[in-house]
Amino acid sequence: MSNLKPADALKQHWTDALPSAWKPYAQLSRLDRPIGWQLLLLPCLMGLAVTRTGYGFYTDDLRFAFAFLLGAIAMRGAGCTYNDILDRDIDAQVERTRLRPLPSGAVSLKAAWAWLLAQCLVGLGVLLSLPPLAQIVSLIAIPLVALYPLMKRITWWPQAWLGIVFSWGALVGGAAVSNESGVPAEALVLYAGCICWTIGYDTIYALQDREDDALVGVRSTARLFADKWRTWTSVFYVAAIALWASAAAIAGAGLIVAVSLSAIGAFLIWPMLQSVRAESPETALAAFKRNALIGAAILLAFSLEPIWRTLRPILGM
């Protein structure tokens, strides 16, 4: 059973070279689907970048970026493991998820709990490496993360709850590099934009499971929006761009950031939305994965001003 792969896993990945006994744990953590930790990491780096607007980057920012990377991989893995523990019976009834390690029997429930603890310990190490304000902000998210797997059972908006927890890094990133006594305003507005972004891309992701979700009683915005999913998803992407532009303006960034965000909307987000066909799960998954590139472009837009301030003294300008 350990060689079985979930239907949504990458066909080829470095985890394929792991010993057979380790592979199910890599699958529990979704290491073979890096898009998850990438989307968790990007708001952290965006928060760092927007808060450095007007100041430039510091040497310590490299240390924070590495901590965010390690924390994103560990805590995304822990979150997926926890989600799979709670959803193991539902996953067994959904075509795309029935081969995951717990429903397939590749990992026992006891072993899954142990793996969850191990990943949380890595996250704790990362937490202790952050400044006190960032530690406090990070800890506030824990109960919200714990409640997320239950949302699909009690609300039509689990994507919004995912946005709340998956975008939390924007607040942590801002808090880590802020000299203020609280999270800076630009990081708060950035966070709101990332929530809208998450609702958008996770609605697209959920299109893959609409039929199975209806059969097992799982709720989602993909089901809620029905045939209007493209319209509503577009609304959330537009709201995200508007909020991101507002965050940049609050931080004091120039017009170039707003222009860059508009270009990203026109040349990356709009074509991605148009590529999705609701009846084709493959197009939904491909469009969802493009959000890593979209997020990287957004991060670059936020980084333009602090990069310039960092390089200007070096260039003698």
Secondary structure: elements and pairs:
Layout: H1 23-28, H2 35-51, H3 60-91, H4 101-104, H5 109-128, H6 132-154, H7 158-166, H8 169-177, H9 185-206, H10 210-216, H11 221-225, H12 229-251, H13 255-274, H14 281-289, H15 291-314
Average pLDDT: 92
Q: In angstroms, what is the radius of gyration?
A: 20 Å
Q: Helical percent range?
A: over 70%
Annotation field: number of helices: 15
Q: Report the β-strand fraction as a percent range.
A: under 5%
| Shape field | globular
**Which structural class is indicated by helix and strand composition?**
mainly alpha
- Largest sheet, described in full? none
Task: Note the gap between the termini.
Answer: 62 Å
Order of helices and strands: HHHHHHHHHHHHHHH
The poorly predicted ranges are none
The strand count comes to 0
Oligomer: single chain
Describe the structure in your own words:
The structure is a single chain. The protein is mainly α and 317 residues long. 73% of the residues lie in helices and 0% in strands. The chain is built from 15 helices and no strands. It has helices at residues 23-28, 35-51, 60-91, 101-104, 109-128, 132-154, 158-166, 169-177, 185-206, 210-216, 221-225, 229-251, 255-274, 281-289, 291-314. The longest helix has 32 residues, at 60-91. The protein is globular, with a radius of gyration of 20 Å. The relative contact order is 0.13. The mean pLDDT is 92.
